[in-house]
Please model this.
Amino acid sequence: QVQLVESGGGLVQAGGSLRLSCTASGRIFAINTMGWYRQAPGKQRELVATITSGGTTIYSDSVKGRFTISRDNAVNPLYLQMNSLKPEDTAVYYCNAKLISAGITLNYWGQGTQVTVSS
Model:
């Protein structure tokens, strides 16, 4: 089991910045990939950015060049630095951890943190 707790969301004007944090506990040694996903009202949850235990990152096209995913050590804590925020970035942001065990991928999610960008 892995527990994830996010923090750092809030209300910001367009063009502003926010930094989200995610702290993992439990079987953190078994985590392969961590990432951020978001879900806007009426839309499906979508990938924002991921980072593997080896440091490889992936970003969605919509945030590339504006958001940066990072971590202090191999896993913990996980950050998402969001710059040049746009109203369309408004969503609940979720921290995700993936464990791969015996060929099975287990997904763990945080409770989510609201990010609201005003125009």
Remarks:
- The chain has a mean pLDDT of 94.
- The first strand starts at residue 2 and ends at 7.
